[in-house]
Amino acid sequence: MTESFTPSPEHHFTFGLWTVGNPGRDPFGHEVRPPLDPVEAVHRLSDLGAYGVSFHDNDLVPYGSPGSERDDIVKRFRRALDATGMRVPMATTNLFSRPVFKEGAFTANDPGVRRLAIRKACEATELGAELGAEVFVLWGGREGVEADAAKDVAAALDRYKEAIDLVCQHIRDRGLGLRVALEPKPNEPRGDILLPTVGHALAFIGRLQWPEMVGLNPEFAHETMSGLSFHHAVAQTLWHDKLFHIDLNAQRIGKYDQDFRFGSEGIRDAFYVVKLLEDAQWDGMRHFDAHPYRTEDAEGVWDFARGCMRSYLILADKARRFREDAEIQAALHVAKLATLAEPTTPAGGLAEIMASSPDEEALAAQGYGHERLDQLVTELILGAR
What we know:
Blueprint: E1 13-16, H1 17-20, H2 38-48, E2 52-56, H3 57-60, H4 67-84, E3 90-92, H5 111-130, E4 135-139, E5 144-145, H6 153-174, E6 179-183, E7 192-193, H7 198-205, E8 214-216, H8 220-225, H9 230-239, E9 247-248, H10 267-279, E10 286-288, H11 300-324, H12 326-334, H13 349-355, H14 360-365, H15 370-382
Parallel strand pairs: 1-2, 1-10, 2-3, 3-4, 4-6, 6-8, 9-10
Antiparallel strand pairs: 5-7
């Protein structure tokens, strides 16, 4: 059984350099682990069976590095990729850590800050493309407000649109071939963040100059923080054909952004997310944006990474068993799941609907067996089936 849950590159598991490289710092405590060399991260993740790594621009190249130093860092990193066969499917930029972005980046009130942010993002697209990335994620961590009187939300959305359009223009002008994925989040570090949920971001994309270039990077923790179903968010993103990337982790409802190991919390939602991705045969990366517990030493980081991948594979096996379980399939028939795919409109169209006389009492009297179906799924997840 253990072998069936052993990760390999064919599973397309990826990690951010900032995940395994997280030093365990939190608002109440200093670092507990030393910095992790990106090259070591590549080699250790490769040994565990990962497919690739992602990075913020300054995870790899420290901010302000001279051009020659930048080139040396990138060459050394590329040698590690070549030696291991690891890939860089996604890159992003850090527009939230530096003091200059304290009031926002793309939506800062000061035009000078906005121009700096756009330049930094455009340069990060070049770094990502140079290392083979196909997706460029943008998380608007500082695009928000605490004092509502200080921010005209409509004007901020205008500036947000302008910034994304300019980044897309840069990608097109340079022939970088990247797609852009927006990452929604409701709050933290700002009191409220613009584009807080998948629904907000999908609506925003429709107003962009090149909407076909822009999709989403939904994150388990971000939707769960506000009590929403991540499974539903991913399903709607797929329905819109906008799932460009995904961040998998774990989160308790109503808490701060915990970024726990995938599968360690919210196991039912995690199961349905995995089942959705596997049933859809989605060909994207299974990217883990999570952090090891602060309790861990350097070696515990790799237990964390291994755990993320194993949990996904275990849940993928549960999804396979769901499809093969005769009792579950019979319960799905009672629930009339298959008939939801049938169009509501009959051959005669609306006129036929308006002329019909449905037996409301009979329709209301039927049961759908959700209790039994839900219990069967619970038993499957708990290992009793």
